[in-house]
Write a structure and sequence with these properties.
Blueprint (H helix, E strand, L loop, with lengths): L2 E6 L3 H13 L3 E7 L10 E2 L2 H6 L6 E4 L6 H10 L3 E4 L7 H14 L3 E3 L9 H9 L3 E9 L2 H4 L15 H14 L4 E11 L7 E8 L4 E7 L7 E8 L2 E6 L4 E4 L2 E5 L4 H15 L7 H12 L1 E5 L5
Parallel strand pairs: 1-2, 1-4, 2-3, 4-5, 5-6, 7-10, 8-15
Antiparallel strand pairs: 7-11, 8-9, 9-10, 11-12, 12-13, 13-14
Helix pairs in contact: 3-4, 7-9
Length: 307
């Protein structure tokens, strides 16, 4: 049975990923949207989630793509209306918000999905299995991109309480928590804040896992040209590179796994399975690592940033 979907927030990520993925999905049909600015041709459009829920369309599930600082209220309303909810990453502004939503979804008997798209990269499972079969000596994630290309004009990204460079950096953390065989935790962090912004533009993070293996991460919003989304590992079995955000696995310079990017197809397949099984997946581990960085990190002022 096709799941009738409402989409809230018709911005860049919705147009780049959600809308084409939903159109190609055998499980979902986009029946309505809610957005202050965007719309989808041929689909009923409303100015708010409240108006969309009051409309004549029958909606079974709702995907929330608006900025995270306004997502909790929308998710709470959707759950209270008996709708399954798909949360674009990050799932909320705080860990407490997501925990509250998970409780509300359980009480309402609907599915809640905190999505981490990078965990559905083509090489993630092969990488996890390869690392599990060897001894890891060190790990480093490098996530660097040009914010002007990936988040053009998105001023909300720099507001107090927003993630700044952790918006893409949380993807790296979602990958690390998916592929590494043991938990890791923060030892030290330096967060670079532009003088005119309330969120970091770069971060340097030092972790260790429960076996004492060093894990590091570097995030930067100031890299011109092509982006870098990579995880490097030195192991007893050789040097590993997980490239292209989780879609290519290289061992000692030899490509072992690659496939066309289909992360959002994987997310919607999983959302459909959760709904069919009457289950939720509201993992907040990557977000917990971000909150640790803000809690323990040293703030370093750097030059102002302007779009």
């Amino acid at each position: 049975m096709t799941i009738r979907l409402g989409l809230v927030g018709v911005g860049k990520i919705a147009h780049d990923q959600h809308i084409p993925t939903i159109a190609a999905s055998p499980d979902f049909e986009l029946v309505a949207t809610a957005s202050r600015h965007g719309s989808v041709e041929g689909t009923p459009s409303y100015p708010s989630i409240e108006a969309m829920l009051d409309g004549p369309e029958t909606i079974d599930a709702i995907t929330l793509c608006q900025p995270p600082h306004v997502r909790y209220d929308a998710a709470r309303l959707a759950i209270a209306s008996g709708k399954h909810v798909f949360l674009e990453k990050p799932p909320g502004m705080t860990l407490g918000e997501v925990a509250a939503l998970a409780e509300q979804a359980a009480d309402a008997g609907v599915s809640l999905f905190a999505s981490w798209h990078s965990r559905y990269g083509a090489a993630i499972e092969d990488t996890r299995a390869w690392l599990a079969a060897t001894t890891i000596h060190s790990v480093k994630a490098i996530w660097k991109e040009d914010v002007r290309v990936w988040h053009p004009g998105q001023e909300w990204l720099w507001e107090a309480g927003a993630l700044g460079v952790f918006d893409p950096g949380i993807n790296a953390l979602s990958v690390l928590t998916a592929i590494l065989p043991r938990r890791f935790f923060l030892l030290d962090a330096t967060l670079e804040f532009p003088e005119n912004r309330a969120a970091p533009i770069a971060a340097d993070l030092t972790y260790v896992d429960t076996a004492g293996v060093p894990v590091a991460a570097e995030f930067d919003f100031r890299q011109p040209g092509p982006h870098t989304w990579e995880v490097h590992a030195e192991t007893a079995a050789g040097t590993m590179l997980l490239a292209k955000g989780g879609n290519e696995l290289w061992i000692d310079g030899v490509l072992k796994t690659t496939a066309p990017e289909a992360e959002y197809r994987g997310l919607y397949d999983q959302f459909a399975k959760l709904i069919a099984a009457g289950k939720s997946d509201a993992d907040t581990t990557p977000l917990a690592h971000v909150t640790d960085a803000f809690l323990r990190g040293v703030r370093k002022p750097v030059e102002p940033f302007h779009y």
